[in-house]
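Feature request, filed as a ticket because there's no other form

It would be nice if the structure record came with a short human-readable summary line next to the tokens. Right now we just get the raw output. Example of a typical job, pasted below so the devs can see what we mean:
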Amino acid sequence: MELICPAGTPSALEVAVNAGADAIYCGFSDETNARNFPGLNFSREELGEGISYAHRHGVKVLVAINTFARAGATDVWKRAIDDAVGAGADALIMADVGMLAYTARHHSSQRIHLSVQAAAANPDAIRFYVESFGVRRVVLPRVLSVPEIAKIIKEVSCETEVFVYGGLCVMEEGRCSLSSYATGKSPNMQGVCSPPSHVSYREEGDKVVSRLGKFTINAFAEDEATAYPTLCKGRFTTSHGTGYIFEDPVSLDAATMLPGLRDAGVTALKIEGRQRGRAYIESVVRTFRQAIEALEAGEAIKTGSLIAMSEGQMTTAGAYRKTWR
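Raw output as currently delivered:
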């Protein structure tokens, strides 16, 4: 199975390559990719240099152009597609039907991967993208169990990629409106969930209160780490008490699920975290490279070493080990 690793900056790309990635995914410094944070992502020149560096080391580069184009502004997305192809991207990661059609029509030899933002979670949906646009790989949403993934793989002709580490989404990807409700900016269009321009913190007595737009998201005691405010991971007071109503602050760690994912026929394993620093990239990529090598050698996979890198210092196997309906 290929190991697909994030890079939010050129230096992170070099770290991921040196740590053992088979492929790097990254995006341009604009709204065409779903991690559109200040200080992240690549200029055109940086992408060209990054692709050259990766290719010299036998590593592929996948360019995420995976937000949904705004009506009347599709030229921004088309230009990103043209520039990524021109830079030598090994694949484009995409979700917007119009932009998929544009790529298939104008760059017929370009390899296309379907982004998790498309939320294609069943064989019929996947076949539509494969037959309509020549999609070669689909990144599956993080709502499927391993048996469900295995069933899908048996019925589709394209490769499959699944997330194995990093942040989780409370909704099926591409189907969440919480952030846009609070800020007016859509994660799936402007490319940023909980944009920094709408984030604020203030001290109230002995607590630090975080807000997103007009909404109070959380309150932290002095001995608590102050998390970034996203609506789905806030603490709220209801008739059942105060706590994490939508989702706990926890990271996906599917290292123990690698044997099942291999047996299901998964092509590639994806690490989330383009907004994370080089230390995160180095540690997580090396750990999963070692896990894949252990799996191939028939050895036990070591677990638990990434707790310090996880959100809330907690991990979960998520829906891969689904025990609810």
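Something like this underneath would help us a lot:
The chain has two domains: 2-168+250-324, 178-243.
The two ends are 29 Å apart (CA to CA).
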